[in-house]
Amino acid sequence: MVQRFSPRKSGSGYSQTNQERLRRLIKQHKVSKDVLKTLEDIKPEEYELPADIRRALQANPKAWANFQRYSPSYQRIRAAYVDSGRRRPGQFQKRLRHLVSMTEQNKQFGFCIESYY
Q: Is the pLDDT of residue 48 over 70?
């Protein structure tokens, strides 16, 4: 399988999902040196869970316990997805409620999660 990552416009970032994919491919040595040179802004960094998302999860002990058992990449991707909803009215709260609800049920959600996380 081959995955193509198109060059980005300057100032345009990668989604959290694509950052996770890139990290995984880099660890597996599946990214050419030429491409690696262009990815200097994709460094493994500590992702800090936004305080309001953390508080919402911690307010539900079952959801918080389940969330802590999920892989770090899943945690980062889901939190980034919720966080990105801040730009549209109502989306942040809707996504946050969905994350807490699904996590309380110990259900992971997202595209192709079963093979990725």
A: yes
